[in-house]
Amino acid sequence: MFYIPRGPILDFKDKELVLFYFEELKKEAKKHHCLFIKFDPMIHVNDYKSYEANDNKYKDTDLYLNIFKEIGAQHHGFTINV
């Protein structure tokens, strides 16, 4: 497993960059017989106080999720309790 905590640090709005980065990372991971790559980028999705969590998202969130889906990533939910 390759793990990138709170990363990678990229401009996630730049789809070409994200696709290129993960394409190259997958090649490197295969060289090391890696089964999967785990990452949890530090993307600010919502503002709320800890006692009033909600499902609202910023408009760019869906863009990021669609790009992640395109690279083959599986989204397992957002971190809500930090």
TrEMBL record:
GO terms for molecular function: aminoacyltransferase activity. InterPro entries: Acyl_CoA_acyltransferase, FEMABX. Transmembrane segments: none annotated. It comes from Faecalitalea cylindroides. PROSITE patterns: FEMABX. One of its GO terms (biological process) is cell wall macromolecule biosynthetic process. This is Peptidoglycan bridge formation glycyltransferase FemA/FemB family protein.
